[in-house]
Specification:
CATH class of the largest domain: Alpha Beta
Number of helices: 15
Number of domains: 2
Mean pLDDT: 92
Shape: globular
Bound molecules: flavin mononucleotide
Largest sheet: 8 strands, mixed
Structural class: alpha/beta
Low-confidence stretches: none
Number of strands: 19
Strand order of the largest sheet: 12-11-8-13-16-17-18-19
Distance between the termini: 21 Å
Length: 396
C-alpha cells in the first residue's frame, strides 16, 4: 500500500517513546505522505515542535487556544484535513482521555473530531501500566469503536530492568500499519466470508483436542477486507481477541459447528477465506460427564470432521476460495497439492514454526493460475497482500 500524497496527522503523546515518533514522521515524509503533527503538552517535554516542523516542513499544532494556529492548524481544521490519525506514542493518559472524550489539548481535541475508525494507535508505557485493568478496558472500548492498534511490542523498557509488553512498536512497523490503514476501498460492498481461530473437539465437558491458533491471521484478513469496503462475516473459533468493529462475528467451537456456520453464511459471498485451523479429527464419542481417571493406558478413537474446503471447492456455483496450509515440511509441495486437490483459487502456505500465535507471518501464496508470491510481515500486511491477489482475480 502506498502512502504517496496521503494526509496523515501524527498525534504525539508524552511518553519516552516520543523520540521514535520523529523517525515515524521522517519515514512517512520520505514515502511521500503529507504529514501534520499535533503534540500534547506532555509530549513537548520530550520532543520539541521544531524537530517535527523541520522533519515535515509544516507548522506543528501544540496550543489549542492559539489564534494563529486556529487558522492554520486548528483542531477541527486538522481533523477535516486528516485521512488517518496516527497516535504514537499513545500514553495511558491519552488513551483514557480518548475513551471518555476529554479534549483539553490539541492532540486529543483533533482526535475526537476524527472517526475512531481512522485512528491508528501505537501504545507505549511501562508493562505494568499496560497490564492495568483500567488501560486494558480503555483499549477494549477504543477497539470496539473501530480504532485500530499496532503493538505494543514486547521488549526492554526505558527503565532497563523492566521487560514486557508495553514498548512502542518500531517506527518501521507503525509506518507499515499506516500504509495498511490507508488501503484503497477496492472491495466496496463485496460480500466475503472469513473463518479464523482454532476449533475445539470435546472429549467430555472439560477436555478437548485443539491447536495453538490465535486467530490473529484470520482476524487481520477480516479487518483488512472491512477497511477496503467489503461486507464481512467472520466465523471464529474460540480466541482471545476483541471483536472487530463493523464485522458480523459468528462464534463457533467445534469443526462441525464451523462447517454448519459456513453453510449458513456462504450464500451471497463472492470470496471465502478459510484461515481457521480446523481439526481434521474429533473423538468418536463425547462423554456427557467428566471421564474419570483410569488405571493403565487408554485408547481414543478419532473420526474425521467434515472437509469444509473440499465441500466448497466441489460446489457447481462456488465463490472464490482461499485456503491456508500450515505445514511442517515440504511447504510448497504440500500446499500446491492441497490447492489442486481441493479446487482452490489461492492457497496461503506457511511453516507452522512461523505462524501460530505470532504478530507477524511469513507466507507463500500460490494461485491455481500459477501465481507465486513470497512475503513476510505483520499479519495485517500479509492480509492486504492476500486481498490484493483476490482483487486482481475477482473481476468487476
Ligand atoms: C520520563 C517519563 C517517561 C514517561 N513515559 C511514559 C510512557 O511511556 N507512557 C505513558 O503512558 N506515560 C509516560 N509518562 C507519564 C506521562 O508523561 C504522563 O501521564 C502525562 O500526563 C501524559 O500526557 P499526555 O497523555 O497528554 O501526553 C512518562 C513520564 C515521565 C516523566
Amino acid at each position: 500500500m502506498s502512502v504517496q500524497g496521503r494526509r496523515v496527522l501524527l498525534c504525539v503523546g508524552g511518553g519516552i517513546a516520543a523520540y521514535k515518533a520523529c523517525e515515524l514522521a521522517r519515514l512517512l515524509v520520505k514515502a511521500g505522505a503529507q504529514v501534520r503533527v499535533a503534540l500534547t503538552p506532555a509530549a513537548e517535554r520530550f520532543v520539541t515542535p521544531l524537530t517535527f516542523q523541520a522533519l515535515t516542513g509544516s507548522p506543528v499544532a501544540t496550543d489549542i487556544f492559539s489564534a494563529e494556529q486556529d487558522l492554520a492548524a486548528g483542531h477541527i481544521a486538522l481533523a477535516d484535513w486528516a485521512e488517518l490519525a496516527a497516535v504514537a506514542p499513545a500514553t495511558a493518559n491519552l488513551l483514557a482521555r480518548l475513551r471518555i472524550g476529554q479534549s483539553d489539548d490539541m492532540a486529543a481535541a483533533a482526535l475526537l473530531a476524527i472517526d475512531p475508525r481512522r485512528w491508528l494507535v501505537a501504545p507505549a508505557m511501562n508493562e505494568r501500566m499496560w497490564a492495568s485493568p483500567a488501560v486494558q478496558e480503555n483499549v477494549r472500548v477504543l477497539k470496539e469503536r473501530g480504532a485500530r492498534f499496532v503493538g505494543p511490542a514486547i521488549g526492554e523498557m526505558a527503565e532497563r530492568s523492566h521487560v514486557g509488553p508495553g514498548r512502542m512498536s518500531e517506527p518501521g512497523e507503525i509506518f507499515k500499519a499506516c500504509a495498511d490503514a490507508l488501503a484503497p476501498r477496492d472491495l466496496e460492498n463485496v460480500q466475503v466470508l472469513v473463518t479464523a481461530g482454532p476449533t475445539r473437539e470435546m472429549l467430555d465437558p472439560v477436555r478437548y483436542l485443539s491447536n495453538p491458533s490465535s486467530g490473529r491471521m484470520g482476524y487481520a484478513i477480516a479487518e483488512a477486507a472491512r477497511d477496503r469496503g467489503a461486507r464481512v462475516t467472520l466465523i471464529s473459533g474460540p480466541v482471545e481477541l476483541s471483536r472487530p468493529a463493523d464485522v458480523e462475528v459468528v462464534e463457533v467451537v467445534s469443526a462441525e459447528e464451523l462447517a454448519r456456520a459456513v453453510d449458513e453464511h456462504v450464500d451471497g459471498a463472492r470470496v471465502v477465506v478459510m484461515a481457521a485451523a480446523v481439526a481434521d479429527q474429533r473423538p468418536a464419542t463425547r462423554a456427557a460427564r467428566k471421564v474419570k481417571k483410569q488405571a493403565g493406558d487408554e485408547t481414543m478413537t478419532l473420526v474425521r470432521t467434515p472437509d469444509i474446503l473440499a465441500a466448497l471447492g466441489a460446489r457447481a456455483q462456488r465463490p472464490m476460495l482461499v485456503g491456508f496450509a500450515a505445514e511442517s515440511e515440504n511447504v510448497e509441495e504440500n500446499a500446491r497439492d492441497k490447492l489442486l486437490r481441493k479446487n482452490l483459487d489461492l492457497i496461503v502456505a506457511n511453516d507452522v514454526a512461523d505462524a501460530f500465535g505470532k504478530e507477524t507471518n511469513r507466507v507463500l501464496i500460490l494461485g491455481k493460475d500459477g501465481a507465486r508470491r513470497e512475503l513476510q510481515g505483520p499479519k495485517l500486511s500479509v492480509a492486504h497482500a492476500i486481498w490484493d491477489m483476490v482483487r486482481e482475480r475477482l473481476g468487476g
